[in-house]
Amino acid sequence: MKNNIIIFGLMISFALMSFSGTVVFAEEIPVEVTEEISDEIVPEEEMEEKPVLKLSLQDAIDYALENSKDMEIVRLELLKAEVVYNDNIRGIDRGEDNLQYISVRDAFGRVIPDAVVNKAFIRNGGARLATELSFDTAKWNVEMKENEVRYNVEKAYFDLLQIEKELKIAEDNLALAQEQYDHAKLRYEVGMISQQQLLGLEFSLSQAQSSHETARMYYGLQKMSFRNTLGMDFDREFKLIDAIEVKEYEEINLEHSIELAFENNGSLKIVEGNVEVANLNLQALSGRYPDITYVYRAQSVDVAKAEKNLETVRAGVEMQVRSAVVNLTTAEKQIATFEKAVYQASEGVRIAELSFELGQNTPTEVAQANLNLMNAKKNLAQQIHAFNMALLDYKYSIGIGKGF
Q1: Using the 8-state DSSP alphabet, how is residue 154 labeled?
Q2: Please, are residues 82 and 132 in contact by the beta-carbon 8 Å criterion?
Q3: Exposure pattern of 139-160 as b/e (b: 16+ CB <10 Å)?
Q4: DSSP per residue over 4-61, as a string?
Q5: What does the DSSP 8-state code read for residue 252?
Q6: Contact 288/116 with Cβ under 8 angstroms?
Q7: Each residue's pLDDT tens digit, 239-272
Q8: Residue 90: in which H helix or E strand, if any?
Q9: CA 361 → CA 113, 114, 355, 356, 364, distances in Å?
Q10: Which residue from 373, 371, 362 is spatially nearest to 198, judged by alpha carbons?
Q11: Among residues 372, 389, 377, which one has the least CA distance to residue 332?
Q12: Torsion of Cα atoms, 179 then 185 then 187 then 189, to 10°
């Protein structure tokens, strides 16, 4: 019986030894395989970090224009429009009858081929104007798309600078809270303040840390948005080298600015051309279709719609200029107010710290003073940002615009 027990015990021992050996062997294999796979996937030369891309505002604009697919599309559209323009101009110069500039339709919506009307449209200059307007529209679309890209990049650049500023403010607030807590801790150790007062400043420090982490999160999100605006890889590291500042500008004459916008705006020039072409279209039709016919009245409706659209776009252009000027002047006036608020909040922190050391106020009042200073600095930064955005809107409102 004892022999059986001994043999059975030896069998268990051998089994355990075999099992342990299996575990060791199984652990060694994945390590070797993983190392081989890692070497194959990530070669050592590819693990080197890319240099940080330093971007001025102009660098960022150039990068976006170079990588914009939208810009590529409108440039190709311009090349296509140039071919159509050259073909149509040659046809107009030869006075061809088959140029379909006017779609004459009857009451049932059926197209009526009418060489007589097309000849009249060529003679009154409508055909040439329509051809030139189509080509000019393609050119203006390129300029407006470029303006749109520039505007979006400038706004994204200023937005990211603003978030960077808020992150710096949160860092300063954290450093101040840490300094106050460390100083209070020394005073607590020598019995100058109570544990409750120290806990109050510790809570203030915790709040500052939370605000800092929130600012870091928003900064990371804004960086992703900036990369997306520029068409940049999401893992590409960069550094903005321009700074937030109150930009200077020449004195604005509102009426002159509105006239500049009317003269330069691409969308407005397009609809003005459409009105002129529609009227010449109606003139060409009138020689063949009296004003009591469906064809004439249908074209009259198109003329009225074109004129209504012109009024709408013209009002929109003027409203953009007026609102930009109002926002600009309002934002500029308020900057001085927010600067005073920062000064007062700074003094509030100094007085709160002094009063706390004299035992005349509580840690809560010190924490509130810190919070007031942080908020005052953020409000000032946001106001400068609002001013820069209003100035940006004004600059683009008096030029060719960004389209509608």
Answers
A1: H
A2: no
A3: ebbbbbbbbbbbbbbbebbbbb
A4: HHHHHHHHHHHHHHHHHHHHHHHHHHHHHHHHHHHHHHS-GGGGSPPPPEEE-HHHHH
A5: P
A6: yes
A7: 999 887 777 888 899 999 999 999 999 999 999 9
A8: helix 69-94
A9: 92, 92, 6, 5, 8
A10: 362
A11: 389
A12: -160
Cα–Cα distance between 129 and 143 in angstroms, integer?
21
Q: Which amino acid is at 369?
A: A
19 burial (CB, 10 Å; 0-12 / 13-18 / 19+) is: exposed
Contact 347, 374 (CB under 8 A): no
Using CA atoms, how far residue 78 sits from 129, 150, 265, 292, 313, in Å, is 17, 19, 18, 40, 23
Helix, strand, or coil (residue 396): helix
Between the CA atoms of 291, 281, 140 and 253, what dihedral angle is there, to the nearest 10 degrees?
-50
Q: Is 238 helix (H, G, I), strand (E, B) or coil?
A: strand
The label of the residue with tokens 């529209």 reads 137
Tokens linked to 44: 């050592």
Q: Which stretches within 287-362 are classed as H helix?
A: 294-357
Q: What is the pLDDT of residues 265-301, one digit of tens each?
A: 999 999 999 999 999 999 988 888 898 988 899 999 9
The Cα–Cα gap between 127 and 277 comes to 8
pTM above 0.90, yes or no: no
